[in-house]
Amino acid sequence: MALELIDVHKSYPMNVGRKHVLRGVNAVFHKGERVGVLGRNGTGKSTLVRILGRIEAPTRGSIRASMSVSWPIGMAAGFQGALSGADNTRFIARIYDRPVQATVDYVESFAELGEYLHMPVNTYSSGMRSRLGLAISLAVEFDCLLVDEALAVGDTKFGRAFAARLRNAGLIIVTHQPSLVRQLCNRAAVLDRGTLTFYEDLDEALATYNSL
């Protein structure tokens, strides 16, 4: 089981020509492995995350998936603002064929939103949206967790739950923080100038990234 990117290109129209962000990216992420993708600001990390999470389609190339991959944890997207947090949770539980009430109960306990769980998401602060998204991400048992940018995985409620989930799930984390990759990953890649290069040795990946 894996997630595979095949000759993926992504560009955006500009006033003159197009801006090319990803240029022929090829990658295979296998079930159970923990992969860190390092990239400086402006190198296309968020674009890559959106493509991996199926939020955005590539301009050219294809994606094949034989394992379930979460939406990007840490990226506030995908909620229906007019619906309550509870109704969004029920909707997602049905999509992923999860027990609806058990999923709502988990989110209610984990997110600690109180009465706001039953209010429209468009009334939430950014922090409340984040807590809702994190709780739902952990309530659905994905084969692979997709994480966008920095993640607080220390001795916090989420950090402990996240670490427990990683014992049974893979990880793709896209970040500019080498310390997170060293802490969480067993394989790494560097995104630079639109291309993605994989390294089996973490030290080599980190050294390459630090030299950019």
Automatic annotation (TrEMBL):
SUPFAM superfamilies: P-loop containing nucleoside triphosphate hydrolases. Keywords: ATP-binding, Nucleotide-binding, Transport. PROSITE patterns: ABC_TRANSPORTER_1, ABC_TRANSPORTER_2. Signal peptide: none annotated. Transmembrane segments: none annotated. Residues 3-212 form the ABC transporter domain. InterPro entries: AAA+_ATPase (IPR003593), ABC_transporter-like_ATP-bd (IPR003439), ABC_transporter-like_CS (IPR017871), ABC_transpr_TagH-like (IPR015860), Bact_Polysacc_Export_ATP-bd (IPR050683), P-loop_NTPase (IPR027417). It comes from Neoroseomonas terrae. SMART domains: AAA. It comes from the Bacteria. The lineage of its organism: Bacteria, Pseudomonadati, Pseudomonadota, Alphaproteobacteria, Acetobacterales. The keyword Transport applies. The keyword ATP-binding applies. This is ABC transporter ATP-binding protein. GO terms for molecular function: ATP binding. Belongs to the ABC transporter superfamily.
